[in-house]
Design a protein that fits this description.
Elements (H helix, E strand, L loop, with lengths): L8 E10 L6 H7 L3 E2 L7 E6 L4 E6 L3 E7 L2 H17 L11 E10 L6 H8 L4 E2 L8 E3 L7 E4 L4 E7 L2 H17 L5
Antiparallel strand pairs: 1-5, 1-6, 2-3, 3-4, 4-5, 6-10, 7-8, 8-9, 9-10
Length: 186
């Protein structure tokens, strides 16, 4: 049997940085190729990179949030590419983006069908939200985890709120161990 961490896949990485200056978004929208800007719907520019695939949200304050990347290295590359494009327009932006990973969303599979009702009771109602008529998954916020884990009856799970790939690995191993201890993962 392969380890549970082998089932993990990074779905989305969100990181932020700053350009260190206020921006004229109207001018940038005219000068930057492939950008979307509709200030009535969203207060920032949306600039998409293709390799790697990601979207950089650029705000008037000079803050930049990059989302949609499939790894920390991809989000870093997308931000560097965006900075390079902005430099090409004559903007004085930092050579090395100082980025902060805000959130990593991962998916995984425990490999077994889960009885979410039994899990909700076993894990304790103070750390669990489970309302199957509202949402088909169980939301698990354990005090000993830095992430939130969504468990589904299929055995699949979503891990969100981490800032390092190791957070998801720790979460899937911890959840599996707790379910085994409760006799709910066979």
């Amino acid at each position: 049997m392969s380890s549970l961490t082998d089932s993990l896949s990074t779905e989305n990485v969100v990181a932020s940085t700053s350009l260190g200056q206020e921006l004229d978004l109207d001018t940038l929208a005219d000068d930057l190729d492939g950008v979307r800007f509709n200030p009535d719907q969203f207060p920032g520019l949306v600039y998409r990179t293709q390799q790697p695939q990601a979207a950089s949200l650029i705000f008037r304050s000079g803050k930049l949030v990059c989302t949609g990347a499939s790894s920390v290295s991809a989000v870093t590359a997308a931000i560097e590419q965006t900075f390079e494009e902005l430099r090409g327009l004559g903007l004085n932006v930092p050579n090395e983006p100082d980025l902060t990973v805000q959130n990593i969303v991962s998916s995984g599979d425990l490999g077994f069908q889960l009885n979410l009702n039994a899990i909700a009771i076993g894990l304790g109602l103070e750390e669990v939200e489970y309302e199957p008529e509202q949402f088909p998954g169980l939301v698990y916020r354990a005090d000993d985890l830095d992430v939130v884990v969504l468990l589904f009856g299929s055995g699949k799970l979503i891990i969100t709120g981490g800032t390092r790939p190791k957070d998801a690995e720790h979460a899937i191993e911890t959840v599996a161990a707790k379910l085994r201890d409760l006799g709910l993962l066979e």
